[in-house]
Amino acid sequence: xxxxxxxxxxxxxxxxxxxxxxxxxxxxxxxxxxxxxxxxxxxxxxxxxxxxxxxxxxxxxxxxxxxxxxxxxxxxxxxxxxxxxxxxxxxxxxxxxxxxxxxxxxxxxxxxxxxxxxxxxxxxxxxxxxxxxxxxxxxxxxxxxxxxxxxxxxxxxxxxxxxxxxxxxxxxxxxxxxxxxxxxxxxxxxx
Length: 191
Known about the structure:
With 191 residues, this protein is an alpha+beta fold. The chain folds into two domains: 2-77, no CATH class; 86-189, Sandwich (Immunoglobulin-like), CATH 2.60.40.1890. Helices cover 16% and strands 51% of the residues.
């Protein structure tokens, strides 16, 4: 009888831990900065069984049995940081009479928004490389790319009189550096 109660209590505890672990995963599953969250369940059960043995009219013995079960179960839910992922989908360069325009297609296939905080030509920041550069039609500022979104980034290098940013046949590497420190690279061969 007592072992049946113990097995029932352990079964209830296991189910409770599974539910709690699922709840912790649900609550913290979308937050990529939490790691090692721990939930602890303590369960105490006391069972007292009293039996009285009687013989016709007199009590022979009273037996009292008391058992206390204490079970502590800890469940740890580890949330893994899922890296951002920016897919470069379609990229090309065009040469107009007054500028070079790099068209870089992208798709955010990661599990978080991406913020491009810096664009480099090779290892040089845009404004150091060419101070008249335009990104999406204006001076560069932080580019926010939502989860699942796609689009294009236009990087234009206007000519300055006879000065040209590039020469024909030159290989150019454009690096998109995210605010988390990840680089996404597009390589172009100048027409």
